[in-house]
Write a structure and sequence with these properties.
The protein is 27% helix and 30% strand. A six-stranded antiparallel sheet has the order 1-2-3-4-5-6, with helices on one face. Helix 1 packs parallel to helix 3 (115-125). The chain starts with 9 loop residues before the first helix and ends in a 20-residue tail after the last helix. The protein has helices spanning 10-27, 66-75, 115-125; strands spanning 29-34, 37-44, 47-54, 83-89, 92-99, 105-110. It is an alpha+beta fold. It is built from three helices and six strands; from the N terminus they run αβββαβββα.
Length: 145
C-alpha cells in the first residue's frame, strides 16, 4: 500500500480543478493528440488553461483484449496519472496538477496568490453563457500573482 501525504493546499488545488474543468472542456479547443493523449486548451484574457486526457483508441499494432491491457497496466512501475491541468496567468504557470480515475493525484506546482480567487470567479462568470463567449466576460486581474 502506498502512503500519500496530503499538504494543506491539496484540497484547494483540487477544488480549483473541479471548478475550472467544465469551462475548459466546454469552451476549449481540441489540439493534436500525441503519445496517447489529447489536449484541450483555452486562452481567455491573461489566462491560459491546458487539460489533457487519455485518448482511448487502439493503434494499429495494439491488441484489443482486456487481458492484454491488464498485463500492460501491471508492468507499469507506479500508478498512472493520466489526466492533467496546467493553469497559467500572463504566461507564468501557477498550477500544475495530475490525477487518475482511481482518485490518486499529484499537485506538482501550486503558486499561492490572488489568482486563486480570480480563477474561481472566472469559472463562475461563464456559467450559463453560450459557448463562444469566452473572451467577452473576462474579469480584470490587476495586481494578481
Amino acid at each position: 500500500m502506498t502512503l500519500r501525504l496530503a499538504s494543506s493546499n491539496d484540497h484547494l488545488a483540487l477544488a480549483i480543478r473541479d471548478r475550472v474543468l467544465p469551462l475548459v472542456r466546454s469552451r476549449g479547443t481540441m489540439e493534436e493528440q500525441w503519445g496517447g493523449l489529447r489536449r484541450i486548451t483555452l486562452s481567455t484574457g491573461p489566462w491560459s488553461f491546458s487539460h489533457w486526457t487519455p485518448f482511448k483508441t487502439l493503434g494499429a499494432g495494439e491488441a484489443s483484449s482486456p487481458g492484454y491491457r491488464h498485463a500492460i497496466e501491471q508492468q507499469r512501475a507506479g500508478p498512472t496519472l493520466e489526466y492533467g491541468l496546467d493553469i497559467r496567468l500572463r504566461g507564468a504557470k501557477v498550477l500544475g496538477l495530475l490525477w487518475s480515475d482511481n482518485g490518486a493525484f499529484d499537485v506538482n506546482l501550486f503558486e499561492r496568490g490572488d489568482w486563486e480567487t480570480l480563477v474561481l470567479d472566472l469559472a463562475g462568470t461563464f456559467e450559463g453563457l453560450p459557448a463562444g463567449t469566452a473572451g467577452d466576460a473576462v474579469p480584470p486581474v490587476d495586481g494578481a500573482t
